[in-house]
User: Fold this.
Amino acid sequence: MKLEQMGERGIIRKLGEIFGERAIEDDCAILHVGGSYYMLFTTDTVNQKEHIPFTATPWQIGYYACAVNLSDIAAKGGEPQGLLFATTYPKEMDMECVLEIARGMADCAGMYGAAVLGGDTKEGENLTIAGVGIGRVHRSMLMRRRGAKPGDAVYITGTVGRGGTAFVKLQHGYEQKNATKELLEITPRITLARQIARLGVVTSAIDTSDGMAAALQQLGELNSVGFQIVWDEKFPVYPDALRVASKFGIDPSDFIFYGGDYEILFTIDGSFSDEFEKKARKKKFPVTRIGRVTQGKSIALKQANGRTLDLTRYGYEHFHRKSQGPGKLKI
Amino acid sequence: MKLEQMGERGIIRKLGEIFGERAIEDDCAILHVGGSYYMLFTTDTVNQKEHIPFTATPWQIGYYACAVNLSDIAAKGGEPQGLLFATTYPKEMDMECVLEIARGMADCAGMYGAAVLGGDTKEGENLTIAGVGIGRVHRSMLMRRRGAKPGDAVYITGTVGRGGTAFVKLQHGYEQKNATKELLEITPRITLARQIARLGVVTSAIDTSDGMAAALQQLGELNSVGFQIVWDEKFPVYPDALRVASKFGIDPSDFIFYGGDYEILFTIDGSFSDEFEKKARKKKFPVTRIGRVTQGKSIALKQANGRTLDLTRYGYEHFHRKSQGPGKLKI
Assistant:
């Protein structure tokens, strides 16, 4: 069977049969190296053709390649320690461009208390940056994907739809500079995720790097649960999403759940959720309760107009495009 | 300036100005995480177009992508703990091929007591595998590239010229299956390097993944030293190199120093070298003394016929091909 028929997650499931479930379950590999900390390792590749709009500056490309890896560490409640970058550059590329990419990497790492520790430089037809994030997390603070159970409350940090909004803008050639910034100059939720993890009540967590819908699907599959998400007036839609949707006559639900937001989606045991929210308000955490974990497999988005949208059917996923419908967010 | 004018090591030196010298000095990033061990991290990318002959099986590709990273850990005296693979697959690739690559990775990792901990799967035009090796080394056993000084004795594990020999065979369409095996089914020197490191007398070490000449050049530059290598009857030439050289009427010195051998080249303080060799003989280490560290920058190969060959001028290096002459080993 060809990869395009399998879908990215289909491929990963098959790889899990060879490498073991542990290798595919979480955003990071988790290694106990003695003491009270786990080491976290993650790798995420950025290909110019697949992920980077032509409007991006080299600095933004480097920043983004670093930040996506830090986001995986954030999803585990971890603190970043260092990064490696295995990079493939076309030989006709200009050295100044390489240095600007490197500065973007170093600047992003520095903002989050990490450093670029090394890497590998190869020649190839296309610019490809495989970043490696190295972090650590105290055993008591580790957040995993596995753990959500029916009755848990579902939360998200920040807002939903920044990536999707940027995509719509780029698709229409509208506010391109701003859209490129929204897409690439993301803020890995390192500090906030650690503050949340420290409270010790999170049952599962994942970043929304492939969009909120994909994050819910992955958590749902892994934990054999469904979700009911309520899209009411309190739902934290990315502010510009509504303006852009209205400008281009699109329903925001067509794009806000399918673009990479790099927020943390997490669940908390229902009996601790009120207490968690009280603490979160007091500490001014930008988190919003958006629904609950259900039995069964459906991921239902209850809209204010009474309609229910099925979020399992769409979502940006590599390799697998034919059946994606409106969720096909690709630059 | 374009990258093709800079050469791979020229690019890496420039990157060192941004990331700091520490990031570019060694085969691995070395991180002290508390206790008496250092963590080692390395990343090495394998591109199908650049590194893999068309005769390779998918299993061999996976094995190789894993082994090259283990070789970097070996060069530090480390023991591997785990690997990650960030892989880009063309969408028209067959799933069975992906699984065979994965089995090659898992088999290689398993042979050296490590496991594949995770990774990332993306779609792209060409098969690219960015491997990440994670290892650890006791502080007393860490071997670094920095440390060689004039008067040190120079040693190499195993033989010299396996990679170059395989290249010549492939170039001539001769014994292709065997050559592909020689090129890809390499043996990272994990166990031997650790036995050597444990003796505590190594002043510097590097793997010969870009060939012996490139390894000497890198050690030389970093330590501001030169080398005198003696090619006499005791020099450990890869046995098949002489047969192949004679078959195709080529001088073995045209290829044996420029192909990736994945052996460990290391130096030992002159006053400890006799004692080291006594121990090495007793323990039957496959290591050979091949020369000494000198003052100045020349890397001279003294041949048995009295001629001296300058090893600084050639060597396989990415991006930089025009001036390579006979050292241009490329599949």
Chain A has two domains: 3-140, 143-327. Residues 58-75 of chain A form the longest helix (18 residues).
